[in-house]
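Example record for the data management plan.
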Amino acid sequence: MPASCLKKMLRSHLIDYTSIQHEPAYTAKSLLAATGVDADILAKTVVLHVDGVSALAVMTASAKIRWDRLCRVMGTDFIELADESEFAEQFPGCELGAIPPFGSLFGMTVYLDQSLAAQSEIAFSAGTHDEIIKISMQDYKRLAKPIVLEAGFIRSAEQASGEVPPLAQTG
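Corresponding structural encoding:
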């Protein structure tokens, strides 16, 4: 999905957004430096296979997946990272590593890290390595309809301290 299509979709849903053009950036660190966006709202999108079905995991750019906990909280025994060569055709017009976090556009479920979901805004790739889009988290949730997960991701502060969040509570 080219950036122009993504912006058109946001406008059609009456979503205010900010587009930030920047020098090409391929890592979270370089993207943060190029855009000045707060690290707590900068999202990365990862393509997963959950029991053989493609899905998107959306987390802060510095987070990592804790596979054992992600499997438990999702109630499955098998989740794997999709290989870029497998999914390139599923995201026409998107550069590899720059997939926007809207699984509904591609027929995929979206799983959103709770620490990112708690933020007031989200910034994400517009489908290229030289533009990000920032919208309110409320608008993102309304449009993407993600499933928010309380466990399964290790955030940068937890990585440094060795702490891991508890599993999601069910009620």
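Summary line stored alongside the record: The chain has one domain: 3-161.
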